[in-house]
Amino acid sequence: MTDIEIINIILHGSRDKFQTLVEKYQSMVFRTCIGFLHDKDDADDLTQEVFIQTYQSLNSFKGDSAFSTWIYRIAVNASLNRVRKNSRIPILNRLESLFDNGKEKKISINAYETEDPESILIKHEKSKWIQNALDTLPENQRTAIVLSKYDDLSQKEIAEIMKITEGAVEALIQRAKKNLRIKLSASYKKKK
């Protein structure tokens, strides 16, 4: 059954069929949200909000683009709105820290992880540098790089979602990579 057929069934009263769309697109929406928010719990919450918004506005889906493109737009817009809302909170409060209310947080270590603790901490710190640098990119660059790297979308798909040309997507990704290199290099030099 196609997405359009499922949507028509939902719009004609079979609301329980919406679960089919949730199951199909949940991981995609989550990857997009986590790419912007960098926090699993926040991304989980926002993913639920995206599906609530999707359900509430399902009757406005015209079918001019693929349903996946439409829901990506909702996820990107919701993520950007959340980032804007959170930007009013100082960045140190937004980012996950190793300490929470005076109690040390445990860094998640996979069972198969055989690296020494210092290597794990270095990887964790590098991840934070990347997240911080990503957060400082202009919205359009951040959106393009998140959709490209977190969701592994083609430039054509990103162009449809962002409603720009493929050439513009390529330029945004190149600028984002350049800006990330500059920001990460500056962060690394400060640490030395």
Provide tags for this entry.
192 residues; mainly alpha; Rna Polymerase Sigma Factor, Chain: A; Arc Repressor Mutant, subunit A; two-stranded antiparallel ribbon; 2% strand; globular
Structural write-up:
By secondary structure, the chain is mainly α. It has two domains: 1-96, RNA polymerase sigma factor, region 2, helix turn helix motif (Rna Polymerase Sigma Factor, Chain: A), CATH 1.10.1740.10; 113-192, Orthogonal Bundle (Arc Repressor Mutant, subunit A), CATH 1.10.10.10. Helices cover 70% and strands 2% of the residues. It has nine helices and two strands. The chain has helices at residues 3-11, 18-37, 40-56, 67-86, 91-94, 117-135, 139-150, 155-162, 166-191; strands at 99-100, 103-104. The protein has a two-stranded antiparallel sheet. A hairpin with a 2-residue loop joins strand 1 and strand 2 (103-104). The longest helix is centred in the last third of the chain and has 26 residues, at 166-191.
Assigned CATH architecture of the largest domain: Orthogonal Bundle
CATH superfamily descriptor of the largest domain: RNA polymerase sigma factor, region 2, helix turn helix motif
Quickly count the helices: 9
User: Rg to the nearest angstrom?
Assistant: 19 Å
* First-last Cα distance: 57 Å
Q: What characterizes the major β-sheet?
A: 2 strands, antiparallel
- What is the CATH class designation of the largest domain? Mainly Alpha
Segments where pLDDT lies below 50 for 5+ residues? 90-113
What would you call the structural class?
Answer: mainly alpha
- Taken as a percent bin, the fraction of beta residues is under 5%
Q: Can you tell me the overall shape?
A: globular
* Number of beta strands: 2
Summarize the amount of helix as a percent range: over 70%
Mean pLDDT: 81
The SSE string, one letter per element, is HHHHHEEHHHH
- Any idea how many domains? 2
Strand order of the largest sheet: 1-2
What name is given to the CATH topology of the largest domain? Rna Polymerase Sigma Factor, Chain: A
